[in-house]
Amino acid sequence: MSKGIILLAAGGTGGHVFPAEALAYELKARGYSVHLVTDSRAERFAGKFPADEIHVVPSATIGSKNPVAVARSLWTLWTGMRAAKKLIQRLKPAVVVGFGGYPTVPPLLAATRLGVPSMIHEQNAVMGRANKALAQRVQAIAGGFLAENGGAYSEKTVTTGNPVRPAIIEAAKVPYKPSHAGEPFNLVVFGGSQGAQYFSKTMPTAISLLDDDLRSRLRITQQVRPEDMEMVSGCVARLEMGADIAPFFTDMAERLANAHLVICRSGASTVSEISVIGRPAVLVPYPHALDHDQAANAAALAATGGAKVIAQSELSSEKIASILTHVMNDPEKLARMAAAAKQAGKPDAANLLAGMVEAIAAGRTIAEFKGIQS
To answer: Would you tell me how many other CB atoms lie within 10 Å of the CB of residue 202?
Structure first.
Protein backbone atom coordinates (compact mmCIF):
# COMPACT_ATOMS: atom_id res chain seq x y z
CA MET A 1 0.00 0.00 0.00
CA SER A 2 1.27 3.47 -0.93
CA LYS A 3 2.46 5.77 1.86
CA GLY A 4 0.85 8.64 -0.05
CA ILE A 5 1.30 10.77 -3.16
CA ILE A 6 4.24 13.07 -3.78
CA LEU A 7 3.71 15.57 -6.61
CA LEU A 8 6.88 16.62 -8.41
CA ALA A 9 6.89 19.71 -10.64
CA ALA A 10 9.65 20.32 -13.17
CA GLY A 11 10.38 22.42 -16.23
CA GLY A 12 10.59 20.55 -19.53
CA THR A 13 14.39 20.45 -19.88
CA GLY A 14 16.75 17.68 -18.81
CA GLY A 15 18.44 19.91 -16.22
CA HIS A 16 15.13 20.14 -14.34
CA VAL A 17 13.67 16.71 -15.11
CA PHE A 18 16.69 14.49 -14.37
CA PRO A 19 17.06 15.45 -10.67
CA ALA A 20 13.30 15.01 -10.30
CA GLU A 21 13.61 11.58 -11.93
CA ALA A 22 16.34 10.52 -9.48
CA LEU A 23 14.17 11.61 -6.54
CA ALA A 24 11.17 9.80 -8.02
CA TYR A 25 13.05 6.48 -8.06
CA GLU A 26 14.09 6.97 -4.44
CA LEU A 27 10.56 7.89 -3.32
CA LYS A 28 9.07 4.90 -5.16
CA ALA A 29 11.59 2.65 -3.40
CA ARG A 30 10.36 4.09 -0.08
CA GLY A 31 6.77 3.21 -0.91
CA TYR A 32 5.33 6.47 -2.23
CA SER A 33 3.21 7.07 -5.29
CA VAL A 34 4.83 9.72 -7.51
CA HIS A 35 3.09 12.05 -9.96
CA LEU A 36 4.83 14.56 -12.23
CA VAL A 37 3.38 17.88 -13.35
CA THR A 38 5.19 19.66 -16.18
CA ASP A 39 4.64 21.23 -19.60
CA SER A 40 4.34 19.64 -23.03
CA ARG A 41 8.12 19.76 -23.65
CA ALA A 42 8.72 17.05 -21.06
CA GLU A 43 6.60 14.48 -22.89
CA ARG A 44 9.80 13.13 -24.49
CA PHE A 45 10.90 12.03 -21.00
CA ALA A 46 7.57 10.35 -20.23
CA GLY A 47 8.78 6.86 -21.09
CA LYS A 48 11.67 7.00 -18.62
CA PHE A 49 10.18 8.96 -15.74
CA PRO A 50 8.95 6.60 -12.98
CA ALA A 51 5.70 8.46 -12.35
CA ASP A 52 2.33 6.82 -11.81
CA GLU A 53 0.92 9.62 -13.93
CA ILE A 54 2.24 12.69 -15.76
CA HIS A 55 0.08 15.81 -15.83
CA VAL A 56 0.53 18.73 -18.23
CA VAL A 57 -0.51 22.12 -16.84
CA PRO A 58 -0.53 25.39 -18.85
CA SER A 59 2.34 27.74 -18.05
CA ALA A 60 4.33 30.60 -19.54
CA THR A 61 7.37 32.71 -18.86
CA ILE A 62 7.24 36.51 -18.68
CA GLY A 63 10.27 37.36 -20.77
CA SER A 64 8.81 39.94 -23.13
CA LYS A 65 8.37 43.67 -22.54
CA ASN A 66 5.46 43.75 -24.95
CA PRO A 67 2.32 44.54 -22.87
CA VAL A 68 0.16 42.22 -24.99
CA ALA A 69 2.64 39.34 -24.60
CA VAL A 70 2.90 39.96 -20.86
CA ALA A 71 -0.89 39.97 -20.50
CA ARG A 72 -1.11 36.72 -22.48
CA SER A 73 1.56 35.09 -20.27
CA LEU A 74 -0.19 36.21 -17.08
CA TRP A 75 -3.48 34.78 -18.33
CA THR A 76 -1.77 31.46 -19.15
CA LEU A 77 -0.20 31.36 -15.69
CA TRP A 78 -3.59 32.07 -14.09
CA THR A 79 -5.17 29.30 -16.16
CA GLY A 80 -2.36 26.95 -15.17
CA MET A 81 -2.74 27.76 -11.49
CA ARG A 82 -6.47 27.00 -11.61
CA ALA A 83 -5.76 23.70 -13.34
CA ALA A 84 -3.02 22.89 -10.81
CA LYS A 85 -5.38 23.73 -7.93
CA LYS A 86 -7.96 21.24 -9.21
CA LEU A 87 -5.24 18.62 -9.71
CA ILE A 88 -3.90 19.07 -6.16
CA GLN A 89 -7.39 18.96 -4.67
CA ARG A 90 -8.02 15.69 -6.51
CA LEU A 91 -4.67 14.01 -5.77
CA LYS A 92 -4.27 15.31 -2.20
CA PRO A 93 -0.45 15.00 -2.28
CA ALA A 94 1.50 14.87 0.97
CA VAL A 95 4.11 17.25 -0.48
CA VAL A 96 4.61 19.21 -3.71
CA VAL A 97 8.26 19.52 -4.80
CA GLY A 98 9.42 21.98 -7.50
CA PHE A 99 12.62 21.56 -9.53
CA GLY A 100 12.77 24.89 -11.31
CA GLY A 101 11.61 26.15 -14.67
CA TYR A 102 8.50 28.21 -15.28
CA PRO A 103 6.13 25.16 -15.41
CA THR A 104 6.70 24.78 -11.66
CA VAL A 105 5.17 28.15 -10.85
CA PRO A 106 1.42 27.26 -11.21
CA PRO A 107 1.52 24.03 -9.15
CA LEU A 108 3.73 25.49 -6.39
CA LEU A 109 1.62 28.64 -6.14
CA ALA A 110 -1.51 26.50 -6.00
CA ALA A 111 0.02 24.26 -3.32
CA THR A 112 1.05 27.15 -1.10
CA ARG A 113 -2.37 28.78 -1.43
CA LEU A 114 -4.05 25.50 -0.49
CA GLY A 115 -1.76 25.00 2.51
CA VAL A 116 -0.16 21.85 1.08
CA PRO A 117 3.44 21.30 2.30
CA SER A 118 5.86 22.36 -0.41
CA MET A 119 9.57 22.68 -1.17
CA ILE A 120 11.87 23.46 -4.09
CA HIS A 121 15.18 22.09 -5.32
CA GLU A 122 17.68 24.42 -7.03
CA GLN A 123 20.35 22.70 -9.12
CA ASN A 124 22.65 25.70 -9.54
CA ALA A 125 24.71 27.88 -7.21
CA VAL A 126 22.54 30.84 -8.29
CA MET A 127 18.79 30.48 -7.89
CA GLY A 128 16.80 30.56 -11.12
CA ARG A 129 13.95 32.98 -11.70
CA ALA A 130 11.11 30.51 -11.07
CA ASN A 131 12.62 29.23 -7.82
CA LYS A 132 13.44 32.77 -6.73
CA ALA A 133 9.78 33.71 -7.15
CA LEU A 134 8.70 30.71 -5.06
CA ALA A 135 11.42 30.66 -2.38
CA GLN A 136 9.60 32.82 0.15
CA ARG A 137 6.40 30.79 -0.05
CA VAL A 138 7.73 27.23 0.41
CA GLN A 139 8.67 25.49 3.66
CA ALA A 140 12.07 24.22 2.52
CA ILE A 141 14.76 24.71 -0.12
CA ALA A 142 17.15 21.98 -1.20
CA GLY A 143 20.23 23.09 -3.10
CA GLY A 144 22.77 21.48 -5.37
CA PHE A 145 25.29 24.20 -4.54
CA LEU A 146 23.31 26.73 -2.50
CA ALA A 147 24.95 27.69 0.79
CA GLU A 148 23.20 26.89 4.06
CA ASN A 149 24.75 29.94 5.70
CA GLY A 150 24.47 33.57 4.71
CA GLY A 151 21.90 33.22 1.93
CA ALA A 152 18.55 34.97 1.74
CA TYR A 153 16.74 31.81 2.89
CA SER A 154 19.57 29.99 4.66
CA GLU A 155 17.38 29.11 7.64
CA LYS A 156 15.31 26.76 5.47
CA THR A 157 18.01 25.70 3.00
CA VAL A 158 19.76 22.32 3.00
CA THR A 159 22.67 21.66 0.62
CA THR A 160 21.64 18.21 -0.55
CA GLY A 161 23.65 18.22 -3.76
CA ASN A 162 22.16 17.23 -7.11
CA PRO A 163 20.89 13.67 -7.54
CA VAL A 164 22.95 11.86 -10.19
CA ARG A 165 22.28 8.92 -12.48
CA PRO A 166 22.89 5.33 -11.29
CA ALA A 167 25.65 5.04 -13.93
CA ILE A 168 27.52 7.90 -12.23
CA ILE A 169 27.21 6.24 -8.82
CA GLU A 170 28.69 3.09 -10.37
CA ALA A 171 31.50 5.06 -12.05
CA ALA A 172 32.36 6.63 -8.69
CA LYS A 173 33.58 3.21 -7.53
CA VAL A 174 36.53 3.45 -9.96
CA PRO A 175 39.58 4.96 -8.17
CA TYR A 176 41.58 7.70 -9.85
CA LYS A 177 44.86 6.37 -11.28
CA PRO A 178 47.39 9.06 -12.28
CA SER A 179 49.02 8.88 -15.70
CA HIS A 180 52.82 9.06 -15.45
CA ALA A 181 55.42 9.81 -18.13
CA GLY A 182 55.11 7.47 -21.10
CA GLU A 183 51.65 6.22 -20.08
CA PRO A 184 48.35 6.90 -21.93
CA PHE A 185 46.56 10.06 -20.79
CA ASN A 186 42.76 10.02 -21.13
CA LEU A 187 41.29 13.48 -21.86
CA VAL A 188 37.52 13.95 -21.97
CA VAL A 189 36.15 17.12 -23.60
CA PHE A 190 32.44 17.94 -23.77
CA GLY A 191 29.80 20.65 -23.43
CA GLY A 192 26.30 21.56 -24.56
CA SER A 193 25.80 22.39 -28.23
CA GLN A 194 27.45 25.78 -27.83
CA GLY A 195 30.22 24.36 -25.67
CA ALA A 196 30.91 21.60 -28.16
CA GLN A 197 31.20 24.18 -30.95
CA TYR A 198 33.76 26.22 -29.02
CA PHE A 199 35.89 23.22 -28.10
CA SER A 200 35.73 21.94 -31.68
CA LYS A 201 37.49 25.11 -32.79
CA THR A 202 40.10 25.32 -30.05
CA MET A 203 41.05 21.76 -29.11
CA PRO A 204 42.59 20.51 -32.41
CA THR A 205 44.95 23.51 -32.55
CA ALA A 206 45.81 23.09 -28.87
CA ILE A 207 46.72 19.44 -29.44
CA SER A 208 48.88 20.35 -32.43
CA LEU A 209 50.91 22.71 -30.22
CA LEU A 210 51.92 19.98 -27.78
CA ASP A 211 55.34 18.36 -27.87
CA ASP A 212 55.36 15.04 -29.71
CA ASP A 213 55.97 12.97 -26.57
CA LEU A 214 52.89 14.44 -24.85
CA ARG A 215 50.67 14.26 -27.92
CA SER A 216 51.52 10.58 -28.39
CA ARG A 217 50.19 9.86 -24.88
CA LEU A 218 46.79 11.51 -25.43
CA ARG A 219 43.63 9.47 -25.82
CA ILE A 220 40.78 11.92 -26.41
CA THR A 221 37.04 11.56 -26.02
CA GLN A 222 35.41 14.68 -27.48
CA GLN A 223 31.77 15.54 -27.94
CA VAL A 224 31.35 17.26 -31.30
CA ARG A 225 28.28 18.67 -33.03
CA PRO A 226 27.27 16.71 -36.16
CA GLU A 227 28.10 19.70 -38.37
CA ASP A 228 31.65 19.85 -36.93
CA MET A 229 32.40 16.13 -37.15
CA GLU A 230 34.18 16.26 -40.51
CA MET A 231 36.42 19.17 -39.51
CA VAL A 232 37.46 17.71 -36.14
CA SER A 233 37.90 14.18 -37.49
CA GLY A 234 40.15 15.56 -40.24
CA CYS A 235 42.30 17.36 -37.68
CA VAL A 236 42.60 14.23 -35.56
CA ALA A 237 43.61 12.17 -38.60
CA ARG A 238 46.33 14.66 -39.51
CA LEU A 239 47.65 14.58 -35.94
CA GLU A 240 47.74 10.76 -36.08
CA MET A 241 46.47 10.33 -32.53
CA GLY A 242 43.94 8.22 -30.65
CA ALA A 243 40.56 9.89 -30.39
CA ASP A 244 36.87 9.05 -30.15
CA ILE A 245 34.84 11.85 -31.73
CA ALA A 246 31.03 11.74 -31.63
CA PRO A 247 27.96 13.97 -31.11
CA PHE A 248 26.86 11.81 -28.18
CA PHE A 249 28.33 9.04 -26.00
CA THR A 250 26.03 6.54 -24.31
CA ASP A 251 28.88 5.42 -22.04
CA MET A 252 29.98 8.87 -20.85
CA ALA A 253 29.91 7.81 -17.19
CA GLU A 254 32.46 5.09 -17.92
CA ARG A 255 34.61 7.48 -19.94
CA LEU A 256 34.58 9.99 -17.07
CA ALA A 257 35.62 7.22 -14.69
CA ASN A 258 38.64 6.50 -16.89
CA ALA A 259 39.54 10.18 -17.44
CA HIS A 260 42.77 11.71 -16.18
CA LEU A 261 41.43 15.21 -16.95
CA VAL A 262 38.08 16.65 -18.02
CA ILE A 263 37.63 19.90 -19.96
CA CYS A 264 34.00 21.00 -20.10
CA ARG A 265 31.27 23.52 -19.37
CA SER A 266 29.97 23.88 -15.83
CA GLY A 267 26.27 23.14 -15.83
CA ALA A 268 24.94 21.95 -12.48
CA SER A 269 24.59 18.29 -13.50
CA THR A 270 28.05 18.24 -15.09
CA VAL A 271 29.79 19.68 -12.04
CA SER A 272 27.85 17.33 -9.75
CA GLU A 273 28.77 14.25 -11.80
CA ILE A 274 32.45 15.18 -12.00
CA SER A 275 32.62 15.69 -8.24
CA VAL A 276 30.77 12.48 -7.38
CA ILE A 277 33.16 10.45 -9.58
CA GLY A 278 36.11 12.57 -8.41
CA ARG A 279 37.95 13.73 -11.51
CA PRO A 280 40.12 16.86 -12.00
CA ALA A 281 38.59 19.36 -14.39
CA VAL A 282 39.17 22.55 -16.31
CA LEU A 283 35.77 24.26 -16.25
CA VAL A 284 34.88 26.83 -18.91
CA PRO A 285 31.53 28.43 -17.91
CA TYR A 286 29.19 29.17 -20.79
CA PRO A 287 29.49 32.98 -21.01
CA HIS A 288 25.88 33.59 -22.05
CA ALA A 289 24.26 31.45 -19.33
CA LEU A 290 21.28 33.08 -17.65
CA ASP A 291 22.20 34.61 -14.28
CA HIS A 292 25.82 33.42 -14.83
CA ASP A 293 24.86 30.23 -12.99
CA GLN A 294 27.60 28.21 -14.70
CA ALA A 295 30.30 30.54 -13.37
CA ALA A 296 28.91 30.16 -9.85
CA ASN A 297 28.73 26.36 -10.17
CA ALA A 298 32.34 26.26 -11.36
CA ALA A 299 33.49 28.53 -8.54
CA ALA A 300 31.92 26.19 -5.98
CA LEU A 301 34.01 23.23 -7.16
CA ALA A 302 37.13 25.34 -7.71
CA ALA A 303 36.93 26.51 -4.09
CA THR A 304 37.51 22.92 -2.97
CA GLY A 305 40.59 22.56 -5.18
CA GLY A 306 38.88 20.05 -7.45
CA ALA A 307 38.83 22.20 -10.58
CA LYS A 308 40.46 25.10 -12.39
CA VAL A 309 38.08 27.70 -13.82
CA ILE A 310 38.93 29.74 -16.91
CA ALA A 311 36.60 32.25 -18.55
CA GLN A 312 36.07 31.60 -22.25
CA SER A 313 37.28 35.13 -23.00
CA GLU A 314 40.62 34.26 -21.39
CA LEU A 315 40.99 30.86 -23.02
CA SER A 316 42.78 30.06 -26.28
CA SER A 317 44.36 27.07 -27.99
CA GLU A 318 47.73 28.24 -26.69
CA LYS A 319 46.38 28.42 -23.13
CA ILE A 320 44.90 24.92 -23.36
CA ALA A 321 48.19 23.57 -24.71
CA SER A 322 50.04 25.20 -21.81
CA ILE A 323 47.64 23.70 -19.25
CA LEU A 324 47.90 20.23 -20.78
CA THR A 325 51.70 20.44 -20.83
CA HIS A 326 51.76 21.41 -17.18
CA VAL A 327 49.32 18.83 -15.82
CA MET A 328 50.53 15.92 -17.96
CA ASN A 329 53.95 16.48 -16.40
CA ASP A 330 52.49 16.74 -12.88
CA PRO A 331 50.34 13.65 -12.21
CA GLU A 332 50.49 14.22 -8.44
CA LYS A 333 48.73 17.57 -8.85
CA LEU A 334 45.93 15.94 -10.84
CA ALA A 335 45.63 13.23 -8.19
CA ARG A 336 45.21 15.91 -5.50
CA MET A 337 42.57 17.65 -7.59
CA ALA A 338 40.74 14.35 -8.11
CA ALA A 339 40.70 13.71 -4.36
CA ALA A 340 39.45 17.25 -3.67
CA ALA A 341 36.68 16.91 -6.27
CA LYS A 342 35.52 13.61 -4.80
CA GLN A 343 35.52 15.11 -1.31
CA ALA A 344 33.10 17.75 -2.61
CA GLY A 345 30.84 15.20 -4.29
CA LYS A 346 27.43 14.32 -2.85
CA PRO A 347 26.58 10.78 -4.03
CA ASP A 348 23.83 10.54 -1.39
CA ALA A 349 21.87 13.51 -2.77
CA ALA A 350 18.75 11.57 -3.81
CA ASN A 351 18.56 9.86 -0.42
CA LEU A 352 19.01 13.13 1.46
CA LEU A 353 16.45 14.88 -0.73
CA ALA A 354 13.91 12.10 -0.12
CA GLY A 355 14.57 12.48 3.60
CA MET A 356 13.70 16.17 3.35
CA VAL A 357 10.46 15.34 1.53
CA GLU A 358 9.47 12.88 4.25
CA ALA A 359 10.32 15.39 6.97
CA ILE A 360 8.14 18.06 5.35
CA ALA A 361 5.34 15.52 4.88
CA ALA A 362 5.55 14.67 8.61
CA GLY A 363 5.27 18.35 9.55
CA ARG A 364 8.86 18.70 10.76
CA THR A 365 10.68 22.01 10.38
CA ILE A 366 13.94 22.25 8.46
CA ALA A 367 15.69 23.12 11.73
CA GLU A 368 14.49 19.77 13.12
CA PHE A 369 15.60 17.98 9.94
CA LYS A 370 19.07 19.55 10.11
CA GLY A 371 19.30 18.50 13.74
CA ILE A 372 18.52 14.88 12.81
CA GLN A 373 21.13 14.94 10.03
CA SER A 374 23.85 16.31 12.29
So the answer is: 20
